[in-house]
Amino acid sequence: MHLSSVNAAGMERTKTMTHQQLIVTSAVLFFASLSCGFLVEPDQTQEKCYQELGCFNNRPPFHSSERAENYLPGDLKNQQACTIPRNSSTVETLTVTDPDPANGTHFSGFTETKVIVHGFLQSSREQWLHDMVRELLKHGDMNVIVVDWTGGAVLPYGQAAANARVVGAQIAQLLQFLVQRFDITYDRVHIIGHSLGAHAAGYAGERVSGLGRITGLDPPSPYFDGTPPQVRLDPSDAAFVDVIHTDASSLLVLGMGAAGAMGHVDFYPNGGSNQPGCDQDLISKLAHTVWNAAAVGVYAAEGAVACSHLRAIDLFTESINTPCPFMAYPCASADEFNRGNCLTCTGNGCSRLGYHADEMAGRGSLYLRTQKSPSFCSYHYKISLTSENAVDGIVTVQLTGSRGHSEAIPLTQSNEIVHAGTTVTHLFSTRSDIGDLSEMSVHYEKSDTLIVHLLYADIWKLRAATAFSGETQSRSEFCAEGQAVPDKTTTVFNIAGHC
């Protein structure tokens, strides 16, 4: 493995690709590789050894019903890593096998070290790597290492999955060298891996004792879901393992990510699949992939076919420096969360998705909502309206606070009956923090049908109106008791105490 060093200012953005059509075809080829081994016969050899890295076999658990194609790792002699010390302005090339490889380097043993590992069909040229490095160095003084395993992250997918084992061993070897040469400690090392890079990070953590943290950005499901811990990323690989799941859809719609928990804390933004702003079905994904490749380029094509898979990267990168907390909440399921039943942080059960996840006590499976475009972070509110009488119509609510107001939030749809004495609850998220709540505006529009006109009143009478903020854990009551909202009218209710 080679090690190059350059700071953020000297890190050039490389946009030219020699494989412009790769992403266009990779979506189809990837699934062919899962079903038929991509017309490549897996290596039947039981073991393969590498100097200084040890031996790897393809016996169980690396050959099982979840990993039917028992590939051995390939030849990955020239995998590279670039290290970007914060205060360096020159490009440095280091080789682990050199008798004195660190001569003249700006790498510091006194700061934290971040290691970023790309995923399947990617390289160090990816724009997201440049963006993440920039945000990390903006946040604080640290060493940032970018691992480039382009030669191993290629089709067929099964071979790339096997190659990730060697990449993990090489990362562990690099960390051992840094410990010896710079006296760093493993507990100050944080590996951030996307896709197969997340599992490679797990293999690295398995080989070193006391690794501080691993962040898995949408670890893939194929060849890993349902396997024993030694095959995939798991909580034993570091003192703290946090995982962001964004593409846990079925393989039939090109879903790549794993749904199963793999860390001390697992985040499921928007339920962990089908991210807002991304195509949801197979036809749309493939159509936009081809169109974007022809009209824009390889990066846009990749963004179309793997939009949800890449969203984990976007969320983590944004979380580094944003003041928005990316708060996530413990819940039994995405459905329960969407019903508004899980917005409390009882017993310090919440945590912040992304970079600051290790600063909070929340563990287990946590849920949150995000926006469809940057800025992705959201603020969560639960609105509850209790009805005094039965109505049938569309109810829309807007919250106003000290810093602004929310968008109009539909609580009911047309021809939806609200019975007397029942409470209508709705969970919604807003892009900006609207501050301390002061008003709730309620608009009611009665359904325009003859039977509704005959059976239901033109005025909606309320018994109570409340809003709960997930970020502040505060409940606001509004002056709605006994108040009425006439048909096709908006009524404004002040915060309790200012009626």
UniProtKB/TrEMBL annotation:
Ca(2+) binds at residues 232, 234, 237. The active site is at 195 (nucleophile), 218 (charge relay system), 309 (charge relay system). Gene3D superfamilies: alpha/beta hydrolase, PLAT/LH2 domain. PROSITE patterns: PLAT. Transmembrane segments: none annotated. The keyword Metal-binding applies. The keyword Disulfide bond applies. Belongs to the AB hydrolase superfamily. Lipase family. PANTHER family: INACTIVE PANCREATIC LIPASE-RELATED PROTEIN 1-LIKE, LIPASE. This is PLAT domain-containing protein. It comes from Batillaria attramentaria.
